[in-house]
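Let us work through a complete example step by step.
Step 1: write down the sequence.
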Amino acid sequence: MTKGTHKTVLLTGFEPFGGESINPSWQAVHQLDGCHIAGHTIRTKELPCEFDHALTQLNRAIDKYAPALVLCVGQAGGRADISIERVAININDARIPDNAGAQPIDTPVLSGGPAAYFAALPVKHMLNDLRQAQIPASISNTAGTYVCNHVMYGLLHYISEHQLNCRGGFIHIPYLPEQAMHHSGAPSMSAPQVIDALKVMISSALTHDTDLQIAAGTTH
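Step 2: predict the structure and record it as tokens.
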């Protein structure tokens, strides 16, 4: 793979899981395939909701496209806004089996890897730009311990280990309205607003070399 020569962004979403018939991440992501943002072409990939296999597919896509930016997107049913993940931890602790029936409990994402990786993104700039666009957003300090965290950790490890000239991180999004109607009281966000949010975040991540210092933490 030639590093840093292709002006490409890789966006990934997931297949449905947990009894859902759709996954809002792929519903939004696939609509951006071939679009041009900040001088970069968007390429997309649907990942399986499976431990390990998802990382194999992600790594192959990174090798294929040599992207300058990788944003992996996943469903976070119950969350009300766009969640920019700040950190991924080296643990799998699956509350439910993945789509292949695997349910790892208290195992490392990658044996011998560091305890955690921080997102290689200007997360505060991305947050600020989303809010300027009047899109509900926040910084999240946990990507969970399911396949989403697994993919975020694996992505950042791959970038680090291969010394790629590439930024990367993970975004969680709410249910779509058609999903939320089956979950009493659950918040949702429309696909057009999610797509708008992805465009804002991609542009922000590609155009800001350093991050802002604004308060976006939590007390619990």
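Step 3: interpret the result. The two ends are 42 Å apart (CA to CA).
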